[in-house]
Amino acid sequence: MQEYVRVALVFCGIISIFIFPTWVPMLCVIALSLRHRAWEAILIGVLIDLTWLPSGNVIHALPIFTLLSLVIVWGFEPLRAQFLLSE
Amino acid sequence: MNARFSYRDPHAGAGRRRLVIATIVVIALFLVDMVTGGAVRAIVRAGAVKVSLLSHAIGMRIDAGGYFSTHAALASQDLALQARVATLEEQAALSSSLQAQVASLSTMAHLAANVQGITAPIASSFIASPYGTFLIGAGVDEGVSLNSSVLSGDGTVVGTVSEVGDHTATVTEIFAPGRSTDALLDGAPVSVRGMGGGNATTQVPHGITVAPGDAVTAPGFLGRTIGIVGHVNTDPSSAALEVNIGSPVNLSALRYVYVVGPQQ
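Above: the input entities. Below: the structure tokens describing the complete assembly.
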């Protein structure tokens, strides 16, 4: 059941990148990171930036959502390690 | 009693290893993208255009099918009438869509009579991008070049081409967050700072007559209109007037844009 939820969250997160405002896929990233060591959450952040980030110098073209997803996934690691029983 | 119980899963190492690998892959992906000049992004954006168009088509079919009509409305019809109504609604929706396309292309034809350029369809959602960018369905093969101006049917500047692929291009909106544009407001040179969502702000010194509805033009875009004044904050204690500017173009209703060269 948990795997089905994970797959559904990943699918919704990826599709919503192209259709919905950015907070929708980021909600999926947070939901995934709370429960799993989800590399898919990092993938969602990367896809947001690869799709929408304009080219430019480093300061103005910082991949904010990639960095944000990395922070969320790794930031929840102590929480997951302490309280979760899977992965 | 030698209790060595722990809530930590002894098999947690595999998941953590996957995360480390994913982090390294992400960094490598961006490095490859930088070295190749955006090749990875071009592939992702080509896929984004397809997903966006497919979702739009699915949404139209769902609306036309009447699936979300009230239970009472559906219950009063027999199966044959339901199928007939669904077919007629789909045809009406397609007809409305075609009429909207014709109307949009007609304005483009009027613009094309005066300025040489390319008409390109919008290929992505405006609300999905957090950076004030959107995709159009024309690229190098169609004659789009970097830094080309992107206009609406009325000739208002919508943005500029920031990246070009073979058949798609990325457009950065004129009022993208953090983007500054030199403009003229009532003859006074100002710097307009984008805030996203078709909004921008600027400051003008006291003494400049500014009123809501005034057009904001940009010398860098051959004097074309980039926005209109929405609100003027008059604070006598402030050294300058804070002016809020909005785009006169309804971006969410835009279906086609006109791409002209940087010098046109």
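Note for the figure: Chain A has one domain: 2-83.
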